[in-house]
Amino acid sequence: MKEIWIITKRELQAYFDSLMAYILLILFLGFSGFFTWIYGSDIFFVKQANLQVFFNIAYWTLFFFIPALTMRLLSEENRSGTIELLLTKPISEWQVIVAKFLAALLLIVAALLLTLPYYITVSSLGNIDNGAVFSGYLALILVSGMYIAIGLFTSSVTNNQIVTYLLALSIGIFFQIIFQMLSTNLTGILGGITDYLSINSHFDSMTRGVIDSRDLVYFFSVMLLGLVFSESMLMKKRSV
Amino acid sequence: MDIVIENMTKTYGRQKAVDNISLQVKTGEVLGFLGPNGAGKTTTMKAITSFLIPDSGKIFIGNISVNDNPQEAKKNIGYLPENNPLYEDMPVIDYLQFCAGIEGVAKDKINDKVRKVIQTCGITREKHKKISELSKGYKQRVGLAQALIHDPEVLILDEPTTGLDPNQIVEIRELIKKIGKEKTVILSSHILAEVEATCDRIMIINKGKIVADGTAEELRGQAQGSEMLKVTIEDGSLDDIFKGLQLLNTVELVDFADKSTQTFQVKSKPGQSSRREVFKLCVEKGWTLTQLTFVETRLEDIFRELTLEN
User: Fold this and answer.
1) Chain A residues close to B49, C-beta within 8 Å
2) pLDDT tier at B107 (50, 70, 90 boundaries)?
3) Does the B224-300 domain belong in CATH 3.30.70.100?
4) Which of A7, A171, A181, B182 pairs as cysteine with A99 (C-beta 3.0–4.6 A)?
């Protein structure tokens, strides 16, 4: 556990040293702030004191930003050979994967914490549903975790960061859009499966304040799959 | 801690990188892996550090099996990989602290260890610089510092002196020798002089197989069939001396080494020595013998002989 935290700290340090963290925080706050408060069907049109609008915008912003955050994580280690350095220390592949996952997740959590003024503002405008806000934030963190796990996996597949980014985006787009589109056109079992695979149904209910174990199982299993696949990619490189 | 490898084989595709190697290195021994590029040196080292999983065979560090308990085995190993990969965006001191941390050095001892290793490797003035700003030689020292940080019992160094200037090479060699007195060290190189200078034992690997194993002297002895002498004789005509030497009955072959100084190379018949005969000849003819030296078979020759095709 101690080793995981040491690697996580190093990864976070690397995010801040490379300016990646600052760029992400500024862009994320800029985008979500702009579309939540100023432009389009913003938060004032809802005529209700809730953060639904913000959650939906953050949901899309994170979809594009997270692959940029994760594309470096393993591909850079593989490219420069530092992975050999890490894996010949007394730590396991799983610890490396979890540490990197945590680093990206912590950065996202920090970005989300910085949007707390939104909550404070809206709550002073009217009677806000605190439960829904809490489960909405939880949903954002879970979606982020899912995309980080996917990004980590694509990062373990290739040494090219651009390919990693695009690959993560194209896997992500299935969960984000394609499964949902399929589920509206399909019926029966296939419709049910694609509906369950789409993030939307899980995310929407959570932002409305419903925390269902089915949704949690969904998010955690995708995360776990991503991490396990990344680990096996690392292992595979050693026995080739 | 001893390192023991039993019948290790590793193939990449159809090519056998390491072919059924067995070896043992004892505590306090510095073993040099020597071999041409692609001989299997790096593969063997990666397998010892458990970074590569061999197809078959067993590796032990002390009594710990690398195959069954890699985490425990890795604790005892300090490893400097080939090409010395480092986190270039980190300052030296942060990097070493990070390494000490994941090696499991206790928190209150980290600063001490880092300070010590910075001193040993001579990077005191560079410790606050970013690694990417360092020259290759200093990067190599950081790599070495990283391998030494947790006082490992076993050191695996893959080409430790590449990129260093002659002074640094000597320093690093001294360092390795010093460390090697108490620890088990394996280092690889294709520079023969280096292996000869630092290692107690030399192992020549070619095409995944061990082709020679022993001290530098032993290897020379093996390769040296007949005695070679370098002889300089003055106060006589070149031709007379040449003929005189040629006629000695212990001599097989005489060659001009340098005509201007009248130096000859004399090869004796197998198992015989011509030193006394050469001296007697000079006394008899009234020539002056100004040089009579052994020509040692150089390690280079042994190496070439063993690793060249056919």
Assistant:
1) 88
2) confident
3) yes
4) A7
